[in-house]
């Protein structure tokens, strides 16, 4: 049974798709993570809101990097987000925009 | 004599002999006092008593002088002396002895005159023991009487045997005192001895009168003489043997061989009887020096031995030499006087007479024997003579007749006449011989009339009429006046024939013209026959001599002058043998009448078959001869003997002439072969079986009877007709021959016609018999059934074609003896073989049987037959006849019906593919009696399932696998979609032996083939073929069904597993589901472990009622409902209560038990509610264990409005909780509590293990061999908090989340902040993922271990795997990233990889709430 992951899609004012994830992303559901981001990033721009993620493993990080390669990725992971440290460690900021809070 | 004293018989019994007197011989003359001696015995005559009395000096006696004697004494003396009767008297206390002359003369003897005046004691000292007591008795006043008392007196100078009759009486004074004793005595000696001797003579005479043989004589002599040992102390009889030596023939009083009784007298020896003294003299010889001769001698009854003996010769009348002599020992107590000698001579005379009689008798007997021998010799002579005569006669008669009747080569008239002459005379000679023999026998008294009740009138008429032709020819008339008699007459027919024929013949001979009259009348006691003629008559002086033997009358005119003169004599004999009379009256010139009277008789004496009537023929012919001889030869009554086919006749005779003769007779009609004796005949018969054997009886070596015996005892020739040719006439010979088994009997001499007729009739008879037999054989052969004949010993002696066909054993193998080859062999089926033997024994004993039995065909297959056996007595022997029908096909058909039915049943029961195949193959094996059968599915590999009966040690030499011999058949079956036979290698493809067969499993489709191989190549019937086809069709269908079943079961199992299987079980939880071993169905048990919001865990275990899909369906619905309820509810009680309502609405759901628990991880509190379920087991870390029984209640939907309560339990770190369904703890026959206790024990013991291991061990411990019911189990292990952390996860990504759940509280409890906790989680997660991926490549049977420690302020986590990390094929960016992540998130990362696995150590300083 895949780990618990909730996905929430919204369109931002500037037309970008914002995909909000809550729960955990690990090998069991990383496909879904990827899928959701892939769909949302069809326009070439996507905002991944990871504020409510409680777990993110290397597979998930890989997906982020992947998305960042193909399109403009903005990742929302505030200081209170528990996976922010991970993102810092992997230096995602180098390829994507890491935001503290979600844009409107 | 005196007054009042009663006469009393002496009370003591008188011993007949015996006085034991000392043998005293006194010389009385020597003892006599000189002065009283008186004239000595050899001097002048002794004085009289009176004179002697004067001479006695009475003064010396106790009586004193005479004048002083008392008057009584005087008186007594006077009386005494004056009496002429012998008396003595004893007076006074010492019984002074007085006697008279008579006494002196009779008794006293030489003791006179010495005795006078002595005391009685002195006088009779030698007998004082006897008379003393008597005298004492008398002195008391009694009288005594003794009669013929034996007293040994010594009155004659020697001890003498005497007998006296005497009386003692007391002489009493007036006042009654006894003054003396008077004795009156008579001597009886002569009488007694005389009587004794006479008695001996009488007895001996009497006994001898009854003896016949010498040894009887001697025995009688010894016996009788031994009875008188008084007069004959011993007696011996010597008889002279053939050489004149005297031998002891008998002895009395002595044993042969004793001194006096030597067995043989040796004349040279002195210790022998003086035989020489007998020679010449005719008188007896006294031998008085017996003791000197022999030293000892018997004493008979006496004490002293005999001293003398007398030899008496036993003379023979008319012979000089006596037969022997008697030696008679003399009584030692008597003088050997003339009386004695006479006695012995009389004895001798009697003995001699006895011997003479015996010898005479002996001689007589021998004479009689000699006569008998002579008689026998005569009879034998006659038999031999007859044989000798008859054979040449046959050989004269036969050829003569043949010559005369030979149509092919007839004789010229001249020769014919000559030969006719020969024939006629040969005939006559034959008759003469017969008559002579008859007559001789009659005279010897050996002829007996064999009478039987006869209608004499008919017989007489018959005979007379047979003579008719001759009488006609003679120009005479015959009147036969024989009205039937009122009762049968017992006559010997043959004799009657001869009587009548003789009379008629005579009548004819002597009657030239006129008539012959035969009259038969029945008188009151006898039948009277008269034959009267008007012939020349018989002169009166010849009449008396008419019936004399050989007397021939001087009659002038007769047709023939032939005749031996025996005829009438024979007639006379015959008539006499009947007890009748014959007489003749005649008037010369007028005629003669013979009258025969024969009594009716009462009982026939005939024992055998009636004699043949050939005599009539010969008489007739002879008579006919007397007619004009100008006529041509007698009409040839050659019967036309038809041929009896090409029959073969074997002629056996030791006489070559005879053989040739018979052969010539028979040759024209049949194939004739010859043999010279019985042995040669047997050979010939064995070589080529003739149709008839004609054999002589008397032959050297194996004679006719022996040949017959041999033929009859061989079943091949037992029915061969045998005809005897014998010279032995007479019924007894015929009887013997026919009794021995001969079919017919011909007496020599026989005519050719007779022979031919006999042979023909016997051949015809045999042919008819054979025809019968052939008909019977054809009938039996035509039967479809087998017919078997067994003899008394149980051996098969006859079979028909049906037998050969049904069992395959040929007739040529007869006889078949038990044990029969068609009985089942013992090695095949021991039980059956011995059953068959027992059955066979029973059949032989009871003689009947009806039933079905299994036999074995020659080619080995079983043949079932329906048999009927019966027994019959044939010729005294028991024979068994069995008939049986082959019912194998019927039986097998019935078997197959049932086999099919059985297969059908078994297949219907078979559930899965394996069962179907197993059932099918075992049935096939059973039906076709082979152990090799298998099924080939699509793939080339054959499934040859279990071959029972195949030897365990089937080594390299074992038969090749089925595929080799049958492969082509299997292929063909698959291709052609039909049953294919596999011929045995080397056999042409015919109906014969098949190695096996194959059939497609399902003609419609599918590529499977079922094959079977026979134990031994054998033919396959059409029935078997079709059966196999049917069975294989069954199998195909069954396989398909089974396949479907298997599939559906797989589906059901898969479904249930899909229902049951959560994959995201937290790491501190283990779940197990074990379906029951059999019947391998899905069950109604379930478990559930759900993550609930709020860091809670739902744990459920449930058990629905029933099994299979219905239960699984219910279970699924309940499970889902429970899940849903759990997600929403806060308390398990609420969940269960809602489930109650839910369960009510689902069919089959009520009575489901369920255990529902909600664990709050944060507070480690478990709240639970049970609906009738097995209580959970909680093992605390301290080792205590408890059953969570509370909050039990009832199963679902059982009780309306059941109150559901719940229990809250705190789970200490390290506690273990086990929930299960009853399959784990319930065992048949065991109290549930026992199982629960067991579970408690195990759980407590294993509580520290990780849940998976704990779960496995619990199962291994409680249901080691599998369980009967489904088992669902959940094991929960409460994490141990900030102590050590320990977890092991299966190498599956799904496990990661569970691991995180476990780590989280521990990390928090260890002091990490939520942010750090996440970091550590991510780092650990990476390590674990790597281990899963690279170490185990996601082999979820492998486990990754995670251990955590807090050392001081450092959290340390170790991730271990035992996998082999493959070097990365491509630069592992992920791995690099993973490592980067780990290093980034942890303070220290150490990775160590060995061949045994990889260890990743992660360390982080504890950072609190940052």
Write a structural description:
The complex is a heterodimer of chains A (104) and B (1410). Chain A has helices at 30-40, 58-70, 84-89, and strands at residues 5-11, 17-25, 45-56, 72-76, 97-99. With 104 residues, chain A is of the alpha/beta class. Chain A has one domain (5-99): STAS domain (Transcription Regulator spoIIAA), CATH 3.30.750.24. In chain A, strands 1-2-3-4-5 form a five-stranded mixed sheet, with helices on one face. In chain A, strand 1 and strand 2 form a beta hairpin. The radius of gyration of chain A is 12 Å and the shape is globular. Chain B has eight domains: 28-187, 2-Layer Sandwich (Beta-Lactamase); 194-370, Beta-Lactamase (2-Layer Sandwich), CATH 3.30.450; 411-604 and 615-626, Heat Shock Protein 90; 648-771, 3-Layer(aba) Sandwich (Rossmann fold); 786-886, Beta-Lactamase, CATH 3.30.450; 890-948 and 961-984 and 1005-1039, PHY domain (Beta-Lactamase); 1067-1278, PPM-type phosphatase domain (Phosphatase 2c, domain 1), CATH 3.60.40; 1302-1405, Histidine kinase-like ATPase, C-terminal domain (Heat Shock Protein 90, 2-Layer Sandwich). Chain B has 36 helices and 47 strands. In chain B, the strands form ten sheets. A five-stranded antiparallel sheet of chain B has the order 2-1-5-4-3, sandwiched between helices. Chain B has a five-stranded antiparallel sheet with strand order 7-6-10-9-8. A five-stranded mixed sheet of chain B has the order 12-14-15-17-16. The model of chain B is unreliable at 8-43, 629-644 and 939-961 (pLDDT under 50). Chain A binds chain B through residues 1-4, 24, 26-28, 54-59, 61-62, 82-83, 85-86, 89-90, and chain B through 1062-1064, 1091, 1293-1294, 1296-1297, 1300, 1314-1315, 1317-1319, 1321-1322, 1325-1326, 1329, 1373-1374, 1377-1378, 1380-1381, 1384-1385.
